[in-house]
Each structure stands twice: as structure tokens, then as C-alpha cells.
Amino acid sequence: MKDSLLASWLSGKRDPKGTEVMVQGITGRYGRLHTELMLSYGTKIVAGVTPGKGGENVLGVPVFNSCEEAVKKTGAVASVVFVPAPNYLSAVDEAIKSGVKLIVGITERVPVRDTIRSIEEARKRGADLVGPNTPGIIFPSKIKLGIMPVQPFIEGDTLVLSRSGTLTYEISNYLKKAGIGIYAAIGIGGDPINSTNFIEVLEIARDNAIIKNIVIIGEIGGDAEERVASYITETKLQKRVVAYIAGRSAPREKKMGHAGAIIMGEAGTVECKEKALNMAGVPVAKMPWEVPNLIKMKS
Amino acid sequence: MRLLEYQAKELMSKFGLKVPKGKVVTDVNEADRFARTIGYPVVLKAQLPIGGRGKAGLIARVKEPEEMKEKFQQMKERVVAGYRVDKVLVEPFLAHDRELYISLFENRGDRCFTLIASSSGGIDVEEVKDKYLANFGLDGPSEQQYNKAAAYLKLTSKEKEKFLSTARKLYSLFDGSEAELVEVNPLAYVSDSNSNDFVLLDAKVIIDDNALFRRPELKPYLPSDISVEEAEKYGFNFVPLDGDVAVVGNGAGLVLATLDMVSSRGLTPACFLDLGGGATPDRVLAALELVSRTLPNMKALFINVFGGITNSVSVAEGFLEAKKRGFLSKPFFIRLSGAGEQEARKLLEENGIESYIDVEDALDALSRWGGKQ
After folding, report:
1. What is the structure's pLDDT at B234?
2. Residue ending a domain, choose from A130, A156, A184
3. Active-site entry in A175, A258, A269, A273
4. Residue A219 and residue B256: Cβ atoms within 8 Å?
């Protein structure tokens, strides 16, 4: 994603404010609600897409039958996807082919093979794909592409990367109370396979001098946090990185809400992740409210 | 969704793979009748969705009826990892020389799939260094990868041919059933009057739950947990647990973190219930009703809501209705923060209910209750 749209925002080379955005699934209850909330935050939503509903409008936003038409008529370069899981792959595919450069997949319960296929398609066309099963992306005061409440997010110098929506809100709120603002909060998604992962974001953010701190919000399952630890050590990342990982008390082999939150055998436990992060010099909060202090202690 | 061994084997045989000709039974006399038809010795295997059954004494080879009955009854009395043994798989004991290992699984970190083959079957493969590992994509393993796996196992030419056919069938199942994991450990080469082929002595299959909507043929394997099914209808994520304190909140990550918070106070969670985003009073009511009805061990309720898209007022309204209908007979502790918190807390206060903005205060109150238990 080196030269991508999301990379230009994360590296500070381009201001996300004013980016033309479309919403896929805008006529659904959920799509409509969040279109309204994104508009009120200042996100410039120029188009909606729902096959068969072209010509209608939602909150003044024109609706088109296809992504191709929406992009041609409005110049949208980013898309937020709210379609139901069975339609996710075709919706993302259509967005990629229409030339959109950044796609945020809010949709939950997407089959993992559809996720893998959509990642392949996005790579072929050089588009950024985030999600699925993500609350989205917010650059406070600049743009919101997602479903997060806006109150916890104030502008600042901390990058929040997370596998969980509500924990992102909760921890960002603790940061706000401690006077720590956020450069961007990116939900990579709660699924086993994330279209954009922690490392890909870190790879871009590392060269942005404005970003001083990075908060990793992880949970049981997989090895995403361990990979962050290796990345920090191997590339000597020069940022303050702290973490919180949910699921210390979770039973084994049970899916805890998120499709990706499951301990298999000995793999994916909080202890395992904490150990790897500690070895890389990353302190791990035992409770969400300890995160701001870890940032302050380290600085 | 993890299939039980007998279900996995049933699915495997549908894909043309060879499994021992066993029968799943719940009754000792039925077990004996079947054992006599196939002839002793037989293998008894308790059907639980957990690993390490051998070490836990949930698999036994028995030589004659008396021994079988004794072991069978012992197994039926076992409760392991919260699961009670109900079904037992009775299989013929198949003499064999070599035990191999093979698995296909979703590789989360590399965002693809992985094939593992090892000549050290029968034991914990994570401990094994001697194994062939290959990543592959949506088109499946390449010819070269299959052949390399076979070469790695140092098979005879006859074995090799059978192995390649077995591996390809396993992939057909993995792909066709949209599995997250297909694992055979051990995979044995059985050479006797009936067979000259690889037989799957054990089978583990985990299906991608999110793909079930387009795999109706797998519906019969869905676990029949009534409470979980009901929760699905409302769109809750519900996991019943063994402890005392029911934990309800909005958002999977927050509820998971709340389990940790409750546990850090020396208490044990009775469930994980995620209301999902944008819960209405009706859904909150349904969640509290479900919790009060299906968790007999629950001694207290802890609610943790960080309002965003979910409005705290909806939670408070649902809560009050649940109280009115008598679903809240146990002590409860409520934390409401974020969107609508002032109005929600006022509403609760007017009804004589204390709530907290700060989750630590709510936990302190829970701890005080816990201390008196």
C-alpha cells in the first residue's frame, strides 16, 4: 500500500478532509443511519450505491445502480460498504473495478474465502481494502469512514490500531480524559483474516513524524500481536508503542464474539502475545484504563 | 463450528475418504451389540469437541465385553471442559504399521491456507519439527506441493498413489465445505484382507460459521444448544460459561475485556453476551430474559455498556422492563457511559436503581458483593 490513498493520509502527505466518498448499501437501515452520522461529522459523501435504486436519494445524496456510474458521475475515490455478508464480495469487487482507491468493509460475518478473494482483487488493482467486520477509520476532525461514535476521538499525535470496535471507543475515551489526542484510529477488523493488517499500517505510519505514540488493541486468537512485536524488533520502530489485549480469562477453543477471537490449543493466548510484546519493549495494559498511563510513563 | 469426530468422519466418507466402520451409540448394550457384530477388540471414543482425548482417558481399546462395559460406563460419567459425555463412537481396532499426520487450515497471519504433512502421526503435531509445510491459495495446493508432501513422508510407490488420492479428497472437503481446519491425526496405512489404503483413524473438522448460509448440507451438524440458537435470532453473541457472574455488554471486544475485569476481582463469569451495536430496549429485554432463564448457576449480573451507536437510554429502558417482568431476581451492577448516559442514569435513579459511569466503580461494587459471598 506504499503509494496508496490510505498511505498518503497515514504518512501525512495528503489531508483526508474533503475526500469524495460513496456508500454501498446506502438505502439499508444501517447504511442510511451511518451515512447521516458520517455526513454530520463532515465526511463528504457524494454518492450512494444500491442496485435497483438508482435515481433515488438518501439525505440528499444521489443513489446509483452501480459503482461505475457513481464514480463516473461524482468522482468518488473511497467507499464504505454496508451490504449484507452474502453480497460483500461482489460489492467490493465492483468498487475495486470502478477505480475506487480505498474501500472500508463494515460488513460482519463474511465467509473467510470471500475475504481472501477480495484481498487478491484489491491487490491486483492497487486499492486499499480495510475490514471486513471493522468499525472503520477515523482521522479526528478530518474524516470518518465508519460507524464509531465521535465523542471519544479528539485530534492529536497517537495512532490507535484495533481488532475491536467498542474497545477502541473505550480506550480512545480514556486517552481523551488524559489529554491524549488521536491522529487516526483504524479498526483492522475482528475477523481471522484482515484485509489490511497491523504491519501494513505501521509500515506507512513509521515515517510520519507527527505520530508519536501507537496503541495496539488486540485480543485472543491468531498471531497479529506477535507479528507486531517481531516487526518492532526487526525494523527498530522509533515510536512509543503500548498495547492492551482482551481475553485473559477466555476459555479455550470458544469463539468469543468476534470470528477471530478464539484460542486454538496453546496458540493465541493473551500470555503468549504479552510475552512477545514485552520482549519487543511494548508494555501491555492489564485493564483498558491503564493505557494512557503507559503512554505517559514511557515518554 | 467444530464437528464431533463421528460427524467429521461421516462427512469425510461422503468425500470418498476411508474411515473405520464404526457406530455412534449412547447406551452400553447397544455398544456391546455392535462390538459383537464387528468383533472384539474395539475402540471406544467419547464424542466431545475437545483435543487431547487420549490423555484424558476418553479413548480406550477394549478386548472383551466386560472390559468394554466397565470403560463405557466410566466414560459416560465423565465431564470434561464443561462437556458431559453423551455419545460414544465404537470402532473396530485396525492393525497398522505407520501413522501419518495431515492437515489443511486457514493461515491467519499469512492470509492464505496451509498444508502440513508429517510422518510423526498420533502425537501433538505442534511439538513436531519434522514436517512438510506449504502455503496455498484459493485454487488449492499445486501438484508440486502434493508431490513434495508425499516425498517428505518417504512412502512406497503404492502408498504414494493412495496418499495423493487421500490428500486431494481432503482438499475437496476442505474447499467444498468451506472448512477452517481439516486435520487427520493419525492417518494410518491399513493393509489387510479388506483394505490396502489410508484410513482416517481420527478426524477433526472446523467449518467457517460465516459460510453456513450457503452450505445447507452442513446444517444438520449445527450444535443443538437452544440458548445459543435463541441468541442467534436476536443477533447476540452468546457464550454460556461455568461461573457465577453473567456479563452483558455492547461490542465483542468490550464484553471480552469485561470478563477479564470480573475475573481480576476473583469472580468467575457465567456468560459472555454481546448485545451487538444499536441495541433497542426490546433486545436488551430479550437478552436479560435469556440470561435469567438459561444460566442456572448465575448469582449476579454485570452490565457494561459504552454508548456510541447503542444509546444508554435504550439499555436503561430495556433493563427497567426486565426488572418489572421479574427477570432480575439476582444482584446486578450496571455501568452506563457514553451516548445518553445522563438521561439513562436519571431514569434508573428515579426507579431506585444505582448505576455507574466509571467501570472501576461498578467493579468495586461487584467486589463488595463478591466479598460477602
Report:
1. 84
2. A130
3. A258
4. yes
A76 pLDDT exceeds 90? yes
pLDDT for res A44: 98
Provide CB contacts within 8 A for A21, sequence distance 6+: A38, A43, A44, A45, A46, A76, A77, A78, A79, A80, A143, A145
For residue B311, the chain A residues in CB contact (below 8 A) are none
Q: What is the pLDDT of residue B232?
A: 78
Nearest in space to A148 (alpha carbons), one of A58, A34, A289, A59? A34
Q: What are phi and psi of B182, to 5 degrees?
A: -130, 120
Q: Burial-class residue B78 by CB neighbours within 10 Å (0-12, 13-18, 19+).
A: middle
Supply the DSSP symbol for B2: B
Specify the CATH number for the domain of residue A124: 3.40.50.720
How far apart CA A251 and CA A265 sit, in angstroms, is 11
* pLDDT of res. B126: 66
Residue of chain B whose alpha carbon sits nearest to that of A197: B109
Q: A147 and A103: one domain?
A: no
Q: Which of residues 143-162 of A touch B (CB under 8 A)?
A: 147-149, 151-152, 162
Would you say residue B224 has pLDDT above 80? Answer: no
- Mutation pick from A82, A166, A274 vs chain B, by most beta carbons of B within 10 Å, is A166
Domains along the sequence of chain B with CATH: 21-92 (3.30.1490.20), 99-218 (3.30.470.20), 226-372 (3.40.50.261)
Helix then strand count (H, E) for chain A reads: 10, 14
Q: Region A153-167: what's the mean pLDDT? A: 97
AA letter at B210: N
CATH number of the structural domain spanning residue A256: 3.40.50.261
If one counts every other C-beta atom within 10 angstroms of the C-beta of residue A53, the result is 15
Please answer yes or no on whether A217 and B253 come within 8 Å at the CB atom. yes
Flag whether the ipTM exceeds 0.85: yes
Are A287 and A152 in a shared domain? yes
Q: Please give the model's pTM, rounded to 2 decimal places.
A: 0.94
pLDDT digits (tens, 9 = 90+) for B283-302: 999 999 999 999 988 999 99
Chain A, chain B: beta-carbon pairs less than 8 Å apart: 168
- Asked if A29 reaches chain B (Cβ–Cβ under 8 Å), the answer is no
Is A223 a residue whose pLDDT tops 70?
Answer: yes
CA nearest to B284, candidates B228, B235, B227: B235
Are A215 and A244 found together in one domain? Answer: yes
Q: Are residues A84 and A161 in the same domain?
A: no
Q: Please give the tally of structural domains in chain A.
A: 2
Report the distance separating Cα A39 and Cα A9, nearest Å.
20
- Same domain, yes or no: A79 and A58: yes
Residue after which a domain boundary falls, among A83, A99, A130: A130
Average the pLDDT over B14-43 and give the result: 96
Domain of A16?
5-130
Give yes or no for residue A192 having a pLDDT over 60: yes
Interface contact flag, A190 B50, Cβ < 8 Å: no
Q: Which residues pair with B84 in a beta bridge?
A: B79
A124 with A142, same domain: the answer is no
A146 within 8 A of A80, measured Cβ to Cβ: yes
